[in-house]
Amino acid sequence: MSELKNIGTHELNKPLLLSGNQAMARGAIEAGVAFVTGYPGTPSTYLIEALLRFPNLGCRVEWSINEKVAFEVATGFSWAGLRSLVTMKMSGLNVASDAFLSVQYSGTNGGLVLYVADDVNVYYGMVEQDSRYYARLAAAPMLTPASPQEALDYTRRAFDLSEQIGRPVMILMTTTLTNTLELVTIGKIRSIKRKPSFDFNIARYAKAGPLACVQQHKDTLTALEQFGKLTDDLNPLTLTESRIGVIAAGVTWNYLQEVMHLNNLKPCTLKLGVANPLPKEKIKALLSKVDTVVVLEELEPLVEEAVLALRGDVDHPVKVIGKIHGLLSRTGDYNTDMVSSVLHELYGDQVLAPKTSDDLSNQAKALKVKRLNTFCVGCPHRATYYALNQAIEKLGYKKKEVIITGDIGCTILGMNEPFQSCWTEICMGSSISLAQGFKYAGIKNPVIATIGDGTFFHGGIPALLNASHNKVNLTIIILDNHWTSMTGMQPHVGTEVSADGKRVIMIEEVVKSAGVKNVWRVNPYQTKKMIPILMEAISSPDISVIISDAECAIQKKRRRKGGVSLKVKPEKCVGLDVCKNSCMEILGCPAIEPGKDRKAFINPDSCVACGLCHHVCSYGAI
Amino acid sequence: MKQYDLVLSGLGGQGVMTVSEVFATAASREGIQVKVFEGTGISQRGGGVFSFVRFGETFSPKIPLGRADAIISLEISEVASIIQYLKSKGQVWANSGTIHGYYTKINPELYPTQEKIKTMIRLKTAHFHMIPADRLAQEAGSAQAVNMVMLGAFSSSDSFLNTNSITWAIEETNKEFASANLNAFWKGYEFAKKERVAE
Fold this sequence. Notes:
heterodimer, A: alpha/beta, Rossmann fold, 22 helices, 21 strands, B: alpha/beta, 22% strand, globular
């Protein structure tokens, strides 16, 4: 994304080219937000990234250690009367949900907006989750904009709404919207100067006994109902002569508009800009005018179920077309072609079916080059997994005799070829606790957990304390590259370096105070030193922690001017087809290519001289 | 100009998104409505990337199948991932350069021949242009600027956006590398112009 767009501009006459994330950031500034925090999780990451590029926006912006903590800090702002915004991807909402539900019931004072980005169709990774169910679960109001312009407008308004009803307001975007750019009309930036204060009210801000808790529940439901009335205009209903109706939630509205425009259709339509509460009266008004209604919503049939429940309230039969009866998909993201297909079923030739050619798509499929998501050139994780595989082999174990649990972030790429080291991935910090479970279950062979530094701080520390306290025989490798790298190199609590060049928070201090005696800090590029340490740790009957410390190669490269690269001595290299331990095969480094006679050639434009291939080559050719 | 749909593809780090933003910035200067959808994924680690750019009045950022006026691919085999969006007789602009990944380095036969790719394209259109963008970028003094070479080559033929707007947008999008990017742009532009005269 371009870094030049000044989302803090005061020039109102010029529309800005903004993504969904950037538009939302602008909306928050226009609403006079005082504090923005979150945890990196793409597709939500770029909202805070956009704000951090402009330090003079008049609000505090920072990454938190995890989503739950972020939400709680923002709640402090809200309860002190100031406006705050919290950002996270869907997996982060699962982490923050404990705090979120509790605060939803207590309510807010200053406007509090919770932005969650669902990665529908899984462009980036993790569970394909429909977070609208959290709004249901928490009786929380939720807005679902359909375009960057709406993302800005809804966000600006969400802060006012939150203060009107005294509850957090959720805004849901999906990858389709976070990654869409369009020209957006901006508004004035409001400057809100409020003195922080606190209303000392235990019945509201604590969970003071069953009576207070049930009262909180009642108040939450009332607030939700009030929200529905205040946002009725965000669910525009258009009734025509047609006996066909379409309800379109969030971004599906765009596809419906496109199909209507291309085929000159005029069905009755209901656009849903609010996912919770659903506008029951408008749904009934639509049902009473049509014989068939199509429900367009990505992932779960949440609206469709509501429509089915309301169908009995109208006095004629209405056919409901959605995903419960199979026409529409419950997975993946929608597009114009999917909407064309379903309307083609209803309208026949009046709607053009999508233009597909089996011959072309088969050929295209056959020609698509299989590509591997692997570690970047010079990545220290490549060295760590290489050394780990070597250590396991030298201890006499076969690959499938040792369980290595993986964790979230770049470190999980160790599951891919050529390493295939990580066998599991659950959620942030779970590698350590899962490994403990394997040991408890009676796995005799070594169990090893691998986790990145950011992930360790986010969710791994309680698991380490638990394992250490219970004296579980585990090896934990913390791959410490100093940054939250997978999401674009954000800093975390362990990144900061003090004036004397030392890290402010040292992972080994945390590990030692958890009661772990076997602690090593190693340089993964020095594989010959690292392998025996790994072997010792894995063989030890006690819990061992190895901190594999080397900065993310991309970050390191950014600071370095010029550069050196390694060279292959062609007279020594025997080539990919002859070599038993070819660097190209066992390391998969993108900088090494098969050159003349299939001998290794190191691309000087990519190589960062990490030296791993030099250590690996058994012919001394590098 | 009523409407123009463009699909781009390439590999992470090649600059598909930068080209998309240059197009969008240029369009906004001319007062043309524009929408971009960026399909990135965890592309920095070697995966494919695509992008939709839609000019004119559109409702959705996603281009329907078989409707794109042109496709631009920064790596020849990546044409295969977006060809289904091209309308029949649409234009294909592809960098003839290849990028091999882990699997095709070890087993080069897994990488399709240029002939096979051309046969696939011919199912859809005869209007295709193979541009030696890797070489041209190097000649322009910036091996990284393959994306700008391709942008230049494409811009030499289609005048739905003013060339001045595109060069202006190149400077706007990245001030630090503006002159290197412009060199690469013109290299691609001139190459494609000459090639067409020769045709």
